[in-house]
Structures are given as C-alpha cells and as structure tokens.
Design a protein that fits this description.
The structure holds two protein chains of two kinds. Chain A is α+β, with helices and mostly antiparallel strands. Helices cover 21% and strands 40% of the residues of chain A. In chain A, the strands form two sheets. A five-stranded antiparallel β-sheet of chain A has the order 1-2-3-7-6, with no helix packed on it. In chain A, strands 5-4-8-9 form a four-stranded antiparallel β-sheet, with no helix packed on it. In chain A, 23% of the residues are buried. By secondary structure, chain B is mostly helical. Chain B is 40% helix and 1% strand. In chain B, strands 1-2 form a two-stranded antiparallel sheet. The chains are: A alpha+beta, B mainly alpha. Chains A and B meet through β5 of A and α12 of B. Chain A: Keywords: Membrane, Transmembrane, Transmembrane helix.
C-alpha cells in the first residue's frame, strides 16, 4: 500500500516536472520567435537617432493641454552637454495610430542662447499617443530626435 | 432605552445604505462602475472643464460690456443689409440656439452652408465651416457683404451706422469720419459698380470706411462672446461622477444613456474630434460627407487657406489690435492644402439633438442618418475621409442618440 502510494507520488512529481519543462520550452520558443515588445521612450529628454545631440523640452503649461496653442522650449546640447547654438530646427509630428499630422505648423521663433530655442505654435487636438520629431542641423551635422507624448 | 434608540439609529442607515448599494448593483447605475480612464474622459467633456473665455487681443472691445450691448443692437438690426430685410438674427435665431433649422442658411437667397449655432463660438480660433476667418469680428463682416446673405456693402454700412447709430458708435469708438461725400454703395467685394466706385475712392477714404466697418464687426463679436454654452443634463451627471457621488434627480442617466456615453468615449471613436467641454477640437476634417447635388464645387478648408491669410481684417492686418506675436492661429496655421481637401470644422455637439439637419450643408436630416454615415464610412468624393467605419448594434445606435440628447442645454 505504502510503496504503491509512494510510487504514485513519484509519478505525480515527474508529471509536474515534465509539464513545467514543456511550459518552459513553449515560453522559450515564444520569446525566441515573438517580436520584441514595443518600447516607447516617454521621456522629454532624448538622444537624436544618430547620437549627435541630446534634446530636451520644457512646456509653458503642464500637463500639456489639449486644443490650446502653447509654447515649448527645446534644449539642444552635444552628448557631452555642450550647448548647441545657431542650429536650424524643424518641428513635425502627428499621431502614428491615426495617420494624421499636427493641426498647426510649429516653428522655432527665437534662439534663447545656451542651446535653448523657443518653439511656438504647439497644439494637440486629440488625446492619445503623439510623436514629435525635431530635425536639427548644426555644425555637428544633421540629425533627428523623436519624442513620444501620451496626452 | 437609549441603547435601543442608538441601535435603531444605526440600523436604519445601514439598512437603507445596503438597499441603495443593492439597487446600484441591480441597475449598474453607480458612478463607481466607470474606469479611471472613462472618468477622465467624462470630466474632460464637462462644462466644468471649460476655461474662462480668453479676450481676443485682435479686438480691443473684446470683453467690453458697452460694446457687447451695442453689438446686440446691431445683431438684430435689419438696417444692416442691402434691402433692410436681413439681420444677423434672421439666420442666428436666439430662441433656436442662434441657428435656423434649415439645411442651408437663407438671407436674401439660399447660401451653400448650414447656419452654425453660436454658443461658445468665441472660443474657436477659426470661424465658418471652413475657417476662412481667424476671428469672430472678421467673421461678422463677411455675411454683411455676401450677395446671398445681407447683400450690402461697407460704404453703405458706414453711412447707415452714422445716420442711425452715430451717437452710440462714437461713444465707443470715437468720432466718425466724414462720409457724405462718398459713393452710396462701394466695396471691394461688391458687384462691378460697387467695386468700380471703391476703386475711385482715395486710399484714405477706403481706410476710413474700413475702420468703421471693422468696428461694426468688433461690436458684433463683443456681443457674440457673451453667448456661452449652457449647462446640460450631461454636465450635472459628469459633476456627480467626478465627485464620486450618485447623480440625483434629472442628472440620473438611464441604462441606455450610459451605454451611449460609453460608446461615445470608447468604441465609437467620437472623442477623436468631438473632445473637450465644447465637444470640438476646433480643427478641420474630411469625413466623407457627400456634396449636395446642384451646389457649386466645395473643397472645404483647402479652398480658403490663401483667403484667410490675405484678408485685410485678419489678426495681422491693419485693422486688428493685437501685436503680431499674439496672432498665433494665423502665424502657425497648417498651410498644406492637401490635408484639408473637403475638410470642415468639427461642430460642437452641445444642443445637437435639438437642431437637425446636420453637416456643413445640411446633408443629413436626422441623427440616425449621421450615425449611419459614421458607421458606413463612405469614401470622400475628393480627398480622403478620416472616418473608419464602426459597427453599431441597433441598441448601440439608439444609445448614442440617447446620450447626445443629454447634451441639450436649458430651454
């Protein structure tokens, strides 16, 4: 009786281990073949795609408002933290999920010095995920930084 | 005895609150059954979320009560028309949400566009269905000279205001210029004879007339600024939800209204354009609304991008009062016409159920037809419709309409 019981317990343990191994194998396979999870950088401080510039922004109203035209200050430095002045800057963006752009054409209206640039005409007309692309052309070269906002 | 009373005192509220909780579960009408995201959306649509009306820096009479009172007189004055038969109030009827219930407005003749209601109009950075003016005061001038609306001209209006309202005008705006020697009818936007007469006037005379004309617009705008959205049942419901308490009396939503609200802020994607406390993003969208047979070609905002930038009465023009820096709508306007082919302004939905027909030329006579349109999402005749079809059940359609009815303000 007791031996039988024991061997039955052993069988159960083995079955459980087998199941665990199978589950692990399935999970490993899933991890191997599944696309990597989307990582969206939500910080307002980012490195441009070729690594030429460190780009940050500040807004004059927080949280970022909906349906209200407002201003940003962009701060552009080298990766070492040296301010980048006299850069040519273009702002573009939109909602990737909806396939539309910004409702306005924001512009840099003033270089404030120390790598700071006044951006006017920012406006968002819908809640959700927005992408803002900042094109930068300065002595270091041309590069683009992307900010992701969740409004 | 005291202990007994205490017990009773306690027991009653407990029992009744249990009953309330039970009822709440039964009809699922508690405010707590909305998710945090849904509550956030409901709060964002509530009138409580509406900011104070910013003054229009381009109109130094913005927020001026005396100017608003004078504007109200002008708004109702049929003398401000070519034949003395049309006022702003002809189409913008105060007792009908300042619209006229017609597919297309009728001044001296039928126009191509639906008359827009005016509650909250001053919040909008762009006026008209296509946004061809950048301020309320510049907007007010256009119908005055439109051949199918007021059918008058600016020189005649300047002379009329001097004769009929001279004292009130001068009290606000200062001395009127000499006008008697000018032609009776002259305008750069008039018929051939009026345009020729305008050309014969000196630059100084034209400027003097334009200034009086602009001030008429500024007084009208000061009046229209006072037309703000009224609290609706939805706002009372939203207030209760935001405060985490049960809606009471007429703020209680039926199951159907709640379903409609959920659809509106969820699956039906209405919030993409109809967002914020005025239910509009103040932007322009191609939604594939078909043209009305027989009307002239209408490309929506795509056709007016130059017009608003060239308008002498725009924010940057010589008759605006703002510093150029303050003209943000115009300075940062999106100018890519391809984005605006057959795009029209998102109308506010406050009071919408009570004012058919719908769309920029009154194409749809009932809300059911509007919902069918958004459900079927037909391709646009030109440009690309932004609408992605939504499948509604019959109950879903009814629910959405039931919800829209909760946006009606006080009668």
């Amino acid at each position: 009786m007791t031996t039988q019981k024991r061997s039955g317990g052993k069988g159960l343990v083995l079955a459980v281990i087998g199941l665990l191994v199978a589950a692990l194998a399935v999970y490993a396979g899933y991890r191997l073949f599944a696309p990597p999870p989307a990582t969206v950088d939500m910080t307002y401080n980012t490195v441009s795609s070729d690594g030429l510039y460190q780009v940050m922004f500040e807004t004059d109203t927080l949280p970022i408002p909906l349906n209200e035209t407002h201003s940003w200050v962009l701060i552009v430095t080298t990766p070492e933290g040296e301010p980048v002045n006299d850069a040519e800057i273009g702002i573009d963006g939109g909602m990737p999920a909806h396939g539309h752009g910004l409702p306005t054409e924001p512009k840099v209206t003033e270089g404030l010095g120390e790598g700071r640039y006044q951006v006017e005409g920012m406006r968002f007309n819908m809640g959700g995920h927005w992408e803002i692309r900042v094109g930068i052309n300065a002595a270091q070269g041309t590069d683009e930084a992307t900010f992701n906002l969740d409004l | 005895m005291r202990a007994l009373l205490r017990g009773l005192r306690f027991r009653r509220p407990i029992r009744s609150s249990l009953a309330v909780a039970f009822l709440a579960v039964l009809c699922a009408c508690g405010s707590e059954d909305f998710s945090e995201a849904e509550k956030k959306a409901i709060g964002s649509l509530s009138l409580d979320a509406l900011s104070d009306l910013p003054l229009d820096e381009g109109n130094r009479y913005s927020g001026n009560r005396a100017a608003a009172a004078f504007g109200a007189v002008l708004f109702n004055d049929e003398g401000l028309s070519g034949a003395g038969t049309v006022s702003c109030a002809t189409c913008h009827k105060a007792e009908r949400q300042f619209q006229d219930d017609l597919p297309r407005g009728v001044g001296v003749a039928e126009t191509d566009r639906r008359t827009m209601p005016l509650a909250g109009v001053a919040f909008s950075p762009w006026q008209f269905w296509d946004g061809r003016r950048d301020s309320l005061w510049a907007q007010a001038l256009v119908p005055l000279e439109d051949a199918r609306e007021h059918a008058g001209n600016r020189t005649a209006y300047a002379r009329y205001v001097k004769a009929r309202h001279g004292e009130a005008y001068e009290a606000l705006f200062g001395p009127l210029p000499a006008l008697d020697h000018l032609p009776s009818n002259a305008s750069p936007r008039g018929d051939a004879a009026e345009r020729a007469a305008w050309e014969r006037m000196t630059l100084r005379e034209r400027d003097a007339v334009n200034r009086v004309f602009a001030n008429i617009g500024k007084a009208l705008a000061a009046f229209e600024e006072t037309l703000t959205p009224r609290e609706a049942r939805f706002d009372r419901f939203a207030k209760a939800v935001m405060e985490g308490r049960e809606p009471e009396e007429d703020a209680v939503f039926s199951a159907l209204e709640r379903e409609g609200l959920r659809l509106f802020i969820g699956k039906a994607n209405c919030l993409e354009c109809h967002n914020g406390p005025r239910f509009t993003d103040d932007h322009f969208h191609n939604t594939g609304v078909p043209p009305v047979p027989g009307l002239a070609e209408d490309r929506g905002r795509a056709a007016v991008l130059d017009e608003v930038q060239d308008d002498p009465f725009n924010c940057l023009g010589p008759y605006g009062d703002a510093a150029p820096d303050a003209c943000s709508a115009l300075r940062f306007m999106q100018k890519d016409a391809a984005l605006f082919e057959r795009a029209y302004k998102t109308p506010s939905l406050r009071g919408v159920a009570n004012r058919p027909p719908y769309m920029h030329a009154g194409q749809f006579d009932r809300l059911e037809v509007v919902i069918d349109h958004y459900s079927n999402a037909p391709a646009a005749v030109s440009g690309t419709s932004e609408i992605r079809g939504v499948v509604f059940t019959e109950r879903g359609r009814k629910a959405l309409i039931a919800f829209l009815k909760t946006l009606d303000g006080e009668p």
